[in-house]
Amino acid sequence: MSSRRSQNSADLQFNDNWERLAQAIREIHKKNASILSFEELYRNAYNMVLHKNGDKLYNGVRGVITQHLEEVAQAQVVPAFPLSGASSSQTNPNGAGGANFLKVLKNVWEDHTTCMLMIRDILMYMDRVYAKTANVPLVYDLGLELFRDTIVRSQKHPIQNHLLDVLLQQIKLERENEIIDRSSVKASMDMLLELTDASTKDTVYATDFEGRFLETSSEYYRVEGQMLVGECDAPEYMKKVEKRLIEEEQRVRHYLSPSTEPKIRSIVEEELISKHLKTVIEMENSGLIPMLRNEKMDDLGRMYKLFGRVLKGHEEMKSAISVHIRELGKAINETVSSNISSESSGGSGDKQTGASVAIKWVQEVLDLKDKFDKVQNLALSNDKAFQTSFNEAFEHFINKNSKSPEFISLFIDDNLKKGLKGKTEEEVDSVLDKTITLFRFIGEKDVFERYYKQHLAKRLLLGRSVSDDAERGMIGKLKVECGYQFTTKLEGMFNDMRISADTMADFKDFLDKSVLEKPKMDLGVTVLTSTFWPMNLSASPRCNFPAEITKACETFQRFYLGRHSGRRLTWQSNMGTADIRGSFKSRKHDLNVSTYQMVILLMFNDLPEGESLSYEQIKGESDIPESDLKRNLQSLACARYKILVKEPKGKDINHGDVFYFNNEFTAPYQRIKIPTVASKVETEGERKETREKVEEARKHQTEAAIVRIMKDRKTMEHNNLIAEVTKQLQPRFVPIPALIKKRIEALIEREYLERAPDR
Amino acid sequence: MKLADEDKIFQDLLNACRNGDLELVESLVRNFGAPINQTDKWQCSPLYLAFVKFLLENGAQCRKDTFEGQRCYYGALTMKIRGLLSSYKYTKADDKYQPYRNFFSYILERPLDTFSDVIFKLNAPYDRSKRYNTLETLEISAHRCILNARSTFFASKFQTIWCTSKVIEIQEIQIHATCFRAMLRYLYTGEIASIPNSLMDNMIQLCKYVWLDNLSERYTNKMKRINQDQDKIEFKKLQNDFVKFFKNVLLVGKQFYTEQDYNNNMKVDGSEIIENRIGHNDTEPKFAESQHDICIRVEDEFFNCHKVFLTERCEYFKAMFNGPFSEKLLRTPRISECSSKVFALILEFIYTDKCDIPESMACEVLIKADMYLLDKLKSIASIILTNLSEPLEDIYVLMRTAIDLNIGRLEQWCCHWFADHLYEVLEDQRFLDLICESAHSIKKRQETDTIPFIDDLRYWLSKKYSVLEDEIDQRSGKVREYDGEEITDWEAEYNLCLRYYYL
Fold this sequence. Notes:
The structure holds 2 protein chains of 2 kinds. Chain A is mostly helical.
């Protein structure tokens, strides 16, 4: 009974206190807080909570705030609605009504939050004690919820619709380059961000606004993308896209939530880039290929940056560029092959052009490479992926040209021979460096090695090489690329040259000291180790030397074999040179000729004036192989210096031709070098021969690799073995499985290998 | 008195450690700042005795270079404990003063947000690197009350020549701003800020000027400058300065409310006139000895206070003075429903971070501490209450308070008491009401139907009787049976209560 009475009086007390508190909150809403006593209000609220009236207090506060907000909605927000209603954008093009609405809303929001802070201060004790135990939101959060439900998502008034429409309309206006009041838009966004959605625990911004914003944006950009693709050329299109991206990024920074940034970005990227990738790349006269052609680095760079934002963007670019490279490469290959064919039809007269075709080809490829390196550097920020795809494209077309190893070797040959003429050592070096990059693309490195060896041998023996350093530098580069193995033979060739020089010095001493009759001429011999050099020993060229020369040779042979027993010397008459003096009518000339030419010319020594020798006679006497003979006669009789006169005249040497010594020969210089047939593009026959040699070498290498692997593994699956062999041989050439298979079979036949019994 | 008090807490801690009462250890350390690194007369440190991990986590130190540290280390019972000992560094030590420390650093760093009331103008000394700015003056804001409490120099100056000045220009000596700031930091927090060597002379000159021999010594002596123990002493000294300031200046300076004042300054309805009413007879009204900027009326006493302390140490006052309410402009706001004695204790806590609460007032302080949201004061008060052997007030009032204010410790203590005096209260209607209320607090049916209050009682009962059990060596049977009887009794009563309630 007594408790009930006290209950009643407590109720009365509560009602009294509550009435004062409610009044105070109303005053706060009227911005009259300064007349209120904090101490009293706090104590009031404290007592209510202490006397277990926390829930009543809480609900009471909720009621007062709700009521206030509803009044505000009715009195302030609704009158500010933009005139035209929900679809405001048409009738209100400059969005002034919308801006005003946002301003009103901003004020309402600010008033509310300020009031809520005061109310929170008064009800601090309730927050601490009641809200925690009763598991209800703190009073400030309650205020936010009420604002959300009574203003932003009001059931009575279409505030939400208006708000979202106005916001989207403002953004659209800004996209169309109009100035809007960003601060009030931002205030609204902040408001939406601060409010949380009860069910999703996400912000109201995320639940109500963001989705619609993204939807309208993607629609907007879809239309714009289609329009722009139709109107602009590629560079302009990309500039516009770039601008849009920056704009959207700034928009997010200025008044949207940072969480929207990736989303809106991906929309712009999707609508403006992904969807129009191919169209832009393939735009006629302004797409990717024209940009490359005109070296528009800025545009390329922009394209790279923009397309990099989307999936597949770079893929598309890469494949387009690489197709382009292949096409250019193919064009280069075609001009070369057409040059060669036209040249071969033009006859074998100008063999120099054969080499020049090779040089031209390499130079063009190098230029192309330079160009794309530049693109890579300036526009593609050295993207590794692009580099690889470029390299693949180069590799593809370089290996399409079966002569590329030869061409590259020829190119190097040319540079090392001309060398310092007109170019500094650094320049040569840089050219060679670039050539090495081409060398990297070659699949058949062994073929290259073979040609290189041949060319090197000629340079060394004929003393054509300009600089030993340059030669060694080149070999060093090759060594870096392919390893020690690749260059041992080349280095061996250099070694032979050095040792020979020593040997010759010793030979001179030997001759000085010896009592033997001295040969009538100086003899220079280079002793070559047969395995290092590309000469064919078994078929050493036949040639009958005149007696004196034979004698001199024999002297040397005796000297050499005396020092190194057990060695065999074979004379490579096709590689030597000789200095002879020829007496012509007007004057004497020193002629530098090849060994063969010397042999031929010496025949005319014994011939009385006016007599002639026929082709057959020369061939019979000298026993020089036919192709060599023809070439040497050609350079003696048909080239610039006509030491011999041919009858009938003509460029080609045929059976039955007759030769006279040209006594009338004149030349401005004392010393004349009769050009030997320089290194040149091989004829079809030679190529076939080289090919065969290479194939032969490959067989051995393959077998060696197989044996090496099998020694290590003992047993191995067929497929694994093939894979392993391919891997090992890769740096030299790309073996075809059939070849490996054949070699394996051959090895089994010869009982190096056997099939495992259980298979 | 003070010493005895700390001693007692420490003894409690040791005993709790011995008995394995983690709960008590926890509350002693958390709430009352029991000195966990002290040793008793046998050089036993609490760590030696007990919950290694808990103590370590709360900052207990086990250093191998001290005797008791060695003992802990070698006395460790298992390798696991030894590993724990060596893995903990003593970085977390001294947590208990953290909020108080933070308060001083905060007001030092943001004087303008915290009612600073004085500005020092320094003539920046001639600086060779910047040739043309010799006329530049620097303004540094500070709080009079802090300087007053911490420095005799400033205290005497504030009494005399600076007594009315809002802006103070120091012209006697050239002071570099860095040095002045370092001095302020020392005065505010007891910390020694690092000073570039080039300014050391200036710093020492300043120290002499403001009579801080101690500080100048620490700057001259490198060994002392970086020294944690020294820092601790400084902080203790700082706290003591404020204790002195509070006791000697603020409490002494409080004034009494007279009828005349009432007539002069009260309008109808108790609302006060917004005007300075304290020093209306003085010629220099603004800064009295206490340097207060607010005067709080409680019952019929006026407490001279400083907004900086009130607002930054207590959320309640922060809202009161920083908010837009009427108190913001009043010079003598009034606090109702609080006795002036209790308010003095609250102020003591606010100013000094500690509080000697007479046992008789503990309960009242507890309630007010709760109202003003001072959690630490609340736990100090509750520890005092629970260290009593018998309640000074009605046990039911205490229990009520404990439940209302959600103070677990006090609630447990009450339960303990009930368990000890079960026969006296068993028939008391208020006791039954408590059970009934506790039963009512269960909202859903749990897996095992229990009533929290009964559970607690049972726990204390079992504690009580398990000791007896050992002594009389009478296992099981009787005691358990006894327990059982009690429980059925309660359950019967509880059922009755419920029935009564539902009716």
